[in-house]
Amino acid sequence: MNVLVAGGAGYIGSHAVKMLLEAGHRVAVVDNLFRGHGEAVDRRASFHEIDLAETHPLADVLAREKIDCVMHFAALAYVGESVADPLAYYENNTAGTISLLQAMNTAGVKRLVFSSTAAVYGEPETTPIPETARLEPVNPYGWSKRCVEQILHDCAASDRDFSFVSLRYFNVAGAAADGSLGEDHDPETHLIPILLLAALGRREKVTLFGNDYPTPDGTCIRDYIHVEDLCAAHLSAMNALRLGERRFYNLGIGKGYSVNEVVELARRVTGRKIPVEYGPRREGDPAVLLADASKIRSELGWTPRYADLDAIIATAWKWFKAHPGGYET
Ligand SMILES: NC(=O)c1ccc[n+]([C@@H]2O[C@H](COP(=O)([O-])OP(=O)(O)OC[C@H]3O[C@@H](n4cnc5c(N)ncnc54)[C@H](O)[C@@H]3O)[C@@H](O)[C@H]2O)c1
Known about the structure:
The chain is an alpha/beta fold and 329 residues long. The chain has two domains: 2-173 and 224-251, 3-Layer(aba) Sandwich (Rossmann fold); 191-223 and 254-328, UDP-galactose 4-epimerase, domain 1 (Alpha-Beta Complex), CATH 3.90.25. It is 38% helix and 18% strand. The protein has a seven-stranded parallel beta sheet with strand order 3-2-1-4-5-6-10, sandwiched between helices. It has a three-stranded mixed beta sheet with strand order 7-9-11. The protein starts with a strand and ends in a 7-residue tail after the last helix. The model has no long low-confidence stretch (mean pLDDT 97). Residues 7, 9-13, 31-36, 51-52, 73-75, 77, 92, 96, 115, 117, 169, 171-172, 185 line the site of nicotinamide-adenine-dinucleotide (NAD).
């Protein structure tokens, strides 16, 4: 297939580009490089430095590259930033996706694989969370994605051929097993890269947000999925998607690790000291977020290769040791 990867210079998108190419697909990447890295884009893909808001140039690329399917990773994805600047999130993530959908419409592209998030659920009523759980985001980031899911529904209702799959990721972690790609965000807000940067001595200490949650050790519990398992699910979803279908799947491994457990695993994997301190809770952080990912397992036969967090952290550590300053090293 000819696949356009929006946000293909970012952490997850760059891994997806590599996997698509290795599976024999032709890939075009669109990214504005606001948070991405040109170095992360596989040279076998064509690259277009375009913002999602640029509908006409996007439509041109879609038509010229004869795109069959779009994988859409391009978004701003920091909860705290979204609380401070909600309009930037609705503009980039929601309006940006509308522009992409308009471009797809113009170019006659009918398939979309969308990066959604566990943040669409907000404070969960049940755990693990099934796809049928109530959707009540608790921050503008989650709402910006929730709005897109609604828009996709409406587009599918008005166009019988339009088809989409919305993948609701829990916490994504790790790096390409061959060491070629990794996670390089500025600012970095994800726990595992922050711990590994501290292990490398590039951060003095790590502040952990809250140790008074109603969990066994008082810290939040999260579900970590390896970035390559996540990308493999995208390929399965894309291949399974028939014209006119709408699908929603959770993506996690259904196993929870507390923040304290993640710190201990990072110390064990790296063999280094990682100084930590406890700060206050962060607003909008649910105590436990665990995916019920049984639907994608049973419908698409997806099975994660990484079932344990230490193996996931080991892949990230391999990349960080080789790239202590990120892609610039
Ligand atoms: N990383 C996670 O744990 C996680 C969890 C849940 C959902 N997600 C979602 O997965 C997707 C990818 O996340 P990531 O961690 O790889 O983020 P990232 O910031 O590394 O990648 C996003 C990429 O999109 C690009 N981009 C952003 N806005 C754009 C625009 N308007 N036009 C063109 N390019 C634009 C950025 O430059 C960047 O390269 C996002 O949609 C995010 O919401 C990520």
